[in-house]
Design a protein that fits this description.
2 domains, mainly alpha, about 325 residues, about 75% helix
Amino acid sequence: MLVSLLAALGSAFCYGIACVMQAISVRAASRRPAAEPDTGSRGVDPGLVVRMLRQGPFLASILIDLIGFIGQLIALRRLPLFAVQAIIASNLAVTAVFAAWLMKVRLSIREWLAVAGVVIGVGLLGSSAGAEGAAKVGWAFQLGLIIAVAGVAVLGVAAARLPNPARTPIVGAIAGLGYGVLAISARVLPSFAPAQLVRNPATYTLAAAGIVSFMLYAAALDGGTVTTATAAVILAETLPPALIGVLFLGDTTRPGLAVVAAFGFVLAVICAVALARFGEAGEHGKQEEAAARQAQQDPALRRAALRNPELPAPPLA
């Protein structure tokens, strides 16, 4: 059990670092000019990932993601889905911290409190987890996973054409549903033996869900902030698998700790929503820098900024 918990925590840490590195790569590879208004007509850009593959940070993030995925698989062998997904949800806190450092996103006190709340909530969920239930499922469940992957792909392509601010959280949420299908598929794998993997449909739904979700997550980051996109992913990839694990796979909490698990989940969700709501700090910072550059070129704006402390102060020449 301890090894599985450590594997889940290590997976969350890897995913959190990797998603920030991928966000940096998306911004560098995106062909959308920074000043271009978001009309929502660009959809999913298949060439985006191809351009990202030419960047060292993105390739490194893939390796880190792979390490995190291996940790997730190890955790799913011993822990119930709701515990693993909730622990991995703590990568939102890792994402916020590393975004503040690497991408110069300004996190407010409320955001830092939300980061702490996510960690505490996930800790309560992890401590209340019981043993996993049965892993064997029937053909109807396997068929449901296949339909779910197809549905995620169709909905994701349609949602990618929406304008912001709705586009980023909606596409991120659909990507999160895909990652949830991935987790469920990994959960129902009977073993990692090659002969078993080749014959089991869950192997292919796992691979398909991973590819589709990654493409949608990249699309969500293209034109949105890393914390907003990741918060939507976390919310969507945590609750549905947790419910399916409890309702269909026999996952339970430890005796007498159901209330603790519920409180931890609510706390983690509320704090994740808070991070999504206030995750636009990086974009505000860009707007302030643009206004400052314009003020430097316009003497009238410079004088107005000096008279009004609420306006962004222009840099000294």
